[in-house]
Amino acid sequence: LATGPRQDSSVFYEFRTYDIKPSKMKEFLEMVNKYFHFRTAHSELVGFWYTELGALNKVFHIWKYDNFAHRTAVRQALAQDKDWQGKFISAALPLMEKQHNEVAYLVPWCQLGKPPKEGGVYEWVTFQMKPGGPALWGEAFRAAINAHINTGYTKLIGVFHTEYGLLNRVHVLWWNESPDHRAAGRHRAHEDARVVAAVRDSVRFLESQQNALLIPVPCSPLK
């Protein structure tokens, strides 16, 4: 996602977002915690969250695949898994209003991180950048991310750029000790001249931005 290292790994991540009927969220999450081990037996789950702020009645999960053939094999196996289909899918689908997915790669200058401890909250920030791709805005975007990292108030988990879905879109996953800790850090960052300068340079290429506060479910590897 810059003029530096190019994307040369076949590993990708699938983001799945489900809109749950408002009256059914508690029931859906109970089913996830009870039956989701049938799904994780087939491929690696990075994290599973429900939204607390920024969007309501949504669940969000990230899956890691070695390549597209790997994903195809997993989907075929899931279709034949009687426990997964019978105990989870058949009961969960009536609780959903909508499903959405995207495929993305980690940017070449970022490795998937982990929080320093369990607990805390996650922030999912989506940036819709101007057409032109990383050749146009990649360097400025990376500088803005690094400026926030350098303040030390937040932990970067991953930066992803889309391959399927809306293009010129970048997703950033952060971890914070608490919503209040994040708020205090953001206030400090707004007064940091380095952050202000980097954001001002990057925002020239920004079309829209959206964020959500995520709470991990008990079965999520990222907690």
From TrEMBL:
Gene3D superfamilies assigned: 3.30.70.100
GO process terms (BP): mitophagy
Span of domain NIPSNAP: 13-111, 122-221
Alphabetical list of InterPro entries matching this protein: Dimeric_a/b-barrel, NIPSNAP, NipSnap_domain
Assigned GO CC terms: mitochondrion
Positions of transmembrane segments: none
Record SUPFAM superfamilies: Dimeric alpha+beta barrel
Domain of life: Eukaryota
Family statement: Belongs to the NipSnap family.
Record protein name field: NPS3A protein
